[in-house]
Fold this protein.
Amino acid sequence: MSLITCKLCGRLFDSTRGKICTQCLEELDDFYPKVREYIRDHRDARFSVDTLADDMGVDILRVQTLVELGYLDRDVPGLSSDIDDEKKKKEALRQQLKVSLNPTPPKRDQQDDAKSSKMYGQERYGTGKKR
């Protein structure tokens, strides 16, 4: 059993659920709808963690924790085009990997098949038969 201190309140707790104690997680679950509602009411405003915490009158650490836990997304201008480029690159890489891992070998000529079916001695010294 590993005891650590909660990132938000400083209490000791069992670290089975991460760096935040269960009581603070429950408080964050209650706090999130309030933040979401505040952001929806102020759609035209651009928020950062600092401004959102100041406007709502809450601890900045709570808002930052919501972002780190994935409750809130960061909206960075121009990021969507970068994400699209990354997706395209990943897809191209996936296609290249798929082609390289294709289990069927490329077709060889019949002459190559005839050569590969001969033993070393037959290739080196011939079969002794005239063709």
Summary: Strands lie at 3-5, 12-14. The mean pLDDT is 78. Residues 3-68 form one domain. The chain is about 55% helix and 5% strand.
